[in-house]
Specification:
Elements: H1 8-30, H2 35-47, H3 49-53, E1 58-64, H4 72-86, E2 89-95, E3 99-105, H5 107-116, H6 119-125, H7 134-148, H8 163-169, E4 177-180, E5 184-186, H9 189-212
Antiparallel strand pairs: 1-3, 2-3, 4-5
């Protein structure tokens, strides 16, 4: 399903139509797994709804270990099962005693974003190597996160945020902050606000689908 100017009702109808087969197959599989695996996969379904339904490139998800009564291996297995069902990829970026920070993403979409990203900013200023792929970029993001203890802001490329907002937040472009919509907006606010609205509607649709199942 492509992102577009959908109303909430249109988006819900489109999602139910386009993903019904995948959704029903996934829900059928969940009937055969443990209650805790069903819980974590259902939670991921809502968190990653933008990626599944409206073309969001990736979603950063932080799983609090105390919230899920699972060993790490079981948690990672559940994440892998979810992503396999929905045809998306995941990578563990940081594993701490309290949380697991992962990104759920579409590899081809991240590749396209990297190809369009400013080579000057990405390679000269941020010192990423040339020939980046989604996998190598996110590997480096994870390494930098572990080294410095905070998320590298360039992860916004893989999260699908408007490039103007990614570079503006990092101070690479001379434009003022125009507000926030879950991330800081730079330059024309309208595309960012519309994008955030689509992401929010996708989550609402995911919740509705789970409630109706």
């Amino acid at each position: 399903m492509r992102a577009g100017n959908h109303t909430g009702a249109d988006m819900k109808a489109d999602c139910l139509g386009v993903t019904r087969g995948v959704f029903e197959e996934w829900k059928s599989r969940l009937d055969k797994v443990s209650a805790e695996q069903e819980r974590i996969e259902s939670w991921l379904f809502v968190q990653a709804a933008g990626v599944l339904f409206v073309g969001k490139t990736g979603e950063l998800v932080i799983l609090k270990k105390e919230y899920f009564s699972m060993h790490l291996e079981e948690m990672v297995f559940s994440i892998g099962s979810f992503c396999g069902s929905w045809g998306v990829t995941y990578k563990v970026l940081v594993d701490t005693p309290h949380s697991l920070k992962i990104i759920i993403y579409r590899s081809d979409a991240v590749d396209r974003r990297l190809q369009r990203a400013s080579k000057k900013f990405l390679h000269c200023y941020l010192h990423y190597p040339f020939g980046l792929t989604a996998a190598s970029f996110l590997h480096e993001v994870g390494c930098r996160w572990k080294r410095c203890g905070k998320v590298p802001h360039e992860i916004g490329i893989a999260l699908g945020y408007p490039m103007k907002d990614v570079w503006g937040f990092m101070g690479f472009r001379r434009c003022r902050c125009q507000g926030s919509c879950g991330w800081q907006i730079f330059g024309d606010p309208q595309p960012s606000i519309m994008m955030r609205s689509r992401f929010d509607e996708a989550r609402k649709t995911a919740v509705s689908m789970l409630e109706a199942a």
